[in-house]
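Purpose: get a first structural picture of the assembly so the mutagenesis plan has something to point at.
Setup: two entries, given in the order below. No constraints added.
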Amino acid sequence: MLAWSCLLAPDFTPVTLFLGGVGGLLLGLVLVRGLDDLLGSALLLVSACYVVGLFVGRHPLDEAAPLVGAALLLCSELATWSLEERRPVTTSRALRLARARAIGLLVLAGLVAAALVLATATTSLGGGLAWAVLGAAAAVAVVAVTARLATSR
Amino acid sequence: MRRADSPRLVAYAGLAAVGLVAGLAAGRVELVALAAPFALAAALGASLAREPRIAGRLTLDRERALEGEDVQATLELRGTGDAARIDVVLPLPDELVAKGGGNPVAIPAGTDRVELRLGCARWGAFRVGPALVRAHDALAFHTWEADVGVMQPLRVYPSVETMRALLEPLETQVYVGNQVARTRGDGIEFADIREWTPGDRLRRVNWRASARRGDLWVNEQHPERNTDIVLFLDTFTDVSLGHRGTLDLTVRAAASLAHRYLQRKDRVGVVSFGGFLSWLLPASGTKQLYRIVDSLLQMGIVLSFAAKNIDILPPRTLPPRALVLALTPLLDSRSTAALVALRARGFDLVVVEISPLPFVEPKRDELADLSYRLWSLSRDAQRAQYERAGIPIVPWTEGEALDAVLEEVRAYRRHARPARA
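Result (structure tokens, whole complex):
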């Protein structure tokens, strides 16, 4: 992701690297010291590195944005799972597989939602960004309602 | 149940909000696309917040066990279907070990029974439970914790050392037992013959002796009587290294002695002489053994600097003609003074010195060496006090058979009998 951000804005590579580096350092701290409270800040900094590349790079539209968002979510979920696995709890293989499946589904759903947002925004429906936000909110609401219904059975 | 939310849920919601607002403000749809997975995760997390109603019952397959034995703990759970994963932990004292490594354990939804094998590593009176359960949703966005089951008592008795022979008290009591009395009366063991007197039973006539002497002579026997044993435990202080220590050895020795003496129908009592004074009046039988072992399990060191002597003991705790077996680490002069006073009152007394030396690691500097030597000298002085009073004292170290130590006393008592005032 850092490489992709650098590619988006080659002139601002030091800034991108700095932000990404600090974000990576924080993520390392989260993993090494188990400071899961810092996870949000780490994600924010890594996202900022991408955002800098996005704004400075002067690209009209980055189609990789859904992938970046999904990758960030996957990174966060795996980091959290890694911290949880450090607890001395005897876990069965079936439970690990179930967690992996849940994370996979979440990331995939996130990727689909983000792609939907991007697709909605790029389609000329006469709206633009407001439509995109509305579309994202609708997508999220649908998934949430589905999940709620699935769990309340 | 106590609910806790993962900090990443808040982080996801924050990132989603920042991304959406920034996307709107800057007019860049990529920011919205970047935030969408996090917004979805936050929404999903909120929708998964459904509290499971987990309840259950904790049971142990027995309340009493011997050191080294295993006890099965069973946790029956209800309402586990609402959570994706449940972590179960049974908090255990250091003396109990979960065998097979299943504590804590994660169980999938719908599991209604968790079994745990507990190894009783050391004696003691313990409380097992309640178990702690932590339920997670599928993505661990929320956790719910609760205590399940009620506390179960578990008494782990110290293992009893095999002892072939015991110390015989000098005098017996009046009740029937296994000990051959020195007195003469009705019994099995032949003692002597004497001339017939009116009232003697016919079956006691020794016909061979009577024929030889031309007069009636009868046999005399030693009756079988019980004895009274008082285990006098010095609990003023303790020297320990981890779980091992003088108090641990004292309890083990006392349990072994009480078990063996009660087996041969003697009456056994216990006096715990220390910062906290406790006693059990001498009695016999299996119930008394349980009483003694239970009291030993509760035994602990209570630091006290109050002067204590033997007069504070109720009179019935030390019955006349009882053998007082004292177990002391020779660390407190108050117990030495009390025991010497007991001997002065004519009690048949034997002291087993529970050696604290294996539990002391002297440091290698001059001051530590000097203090160690001073401490050794003070112990020697206490030992000399016993010897001057004619009290047999034998050291017992960890790993040595108690039987061998008592044999030394037995040999001593064959040659040196205490004088009666």
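Chain A has a mean pLDDT of 82.
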